[in-house]
Amino acid sequence: MNIVLIGMRGAGKSSISRRLSLLTKRPVISTDLLIEYENDGLGIPGIVAEQGWAAFREQEFRVIEKVTRLDNLIIDCGGGVIVDLDQDGNEIFSERKVSLLRTGGHVVWLKGDIARLAARVQGDPSRPALDAVRSAEEMMRRRLPFYEMAADLVIDIETEKRKRLAKQIAAALAGL
């Protein structure tokens, strides 16, 4: 079984996945890094600028198809893994991606305070820009129910340090 980490931008998925890897002796695969690799090293902001969000979400789906064929991994997902776009470009719950992640994996939502997460990611050049209408907080509030629908396990990231959170996740999943 894979351990799949989901959560909003700035929730600490990458740092917690590395700590969890040390505890569980499982390799980490980052869906965003795989997408960048498949785009000759072009970062996510560049991919989105050149190809648009819809193309990025399709690439994300293809990467998830590949990594979920493997076992005993920690899959570090991008913040928007739980969404796809409808015909009008609006975010909708991604049943197809979440279904793949849940097949053969335990989906762990790293849930944090929206205002703190938004403050953490505002102005980060390594993350795709959010246009003025869709501020970080608005986007995060809109996605909350999608994370709830996707999660097998919810971990509150505000309660502990990253190292303890990794131990908490490992302990919670050990019995499953």
TrEMBL record:
One of its GO terms (biological process) is amino acid biosynthetic process. One of its GO terms (cellular component) is cytosol. Its main location: cytoplasm. Binds 1 Mg(2+) ion per subunit. Pathway: Metabolic intermediate biosynthesis; chorismate biosynthesis; chorismate from D-erythrose 4-phosphate and phosphoenolpyruvate: step 5/7. InterPro entries: P-loop_NTPase, Shikimate/glucono_kinase, Shikimate_kinase/TSH1. Substrate binds at residues 32, 57, 79, 143. GO terms for molecular function: ATP binding; magnesium ion binding; shikimate kinase activity. It is found in: Cytoplasm. Mg(2+) binds at residue 14. It catalyses: shikimate + ATP = 3-phosphoshikimate + ADP + H(+). Signal peptide: none annotated. Its EC number is 2.7.1.71. Pfam families: SKI. Its cofactor is Mg(2+). ATP binds at residues 10-15, 127. It is an enzyme of class 2 (transferase). HAMAP family: Shikimate_kinase. Belongs to the shikimate kinase family. Catalyzes the specific phosphorylation of the 3-hydroxyl group of shikimic acid using ATP as a cosubstrate. Monomer. PANTHER family: SHIKIMATE KINASE, SHIKIMATE KINASE 1, CHLOROPLASTIC. This is Shikimate kinase. It comes from Candidatus Sedimenticola endophacoides. The lineage of its organism: Bacteria, Pseudomonadati, Pseudomonadota, Gammaproteobacteria, Chromatiales.
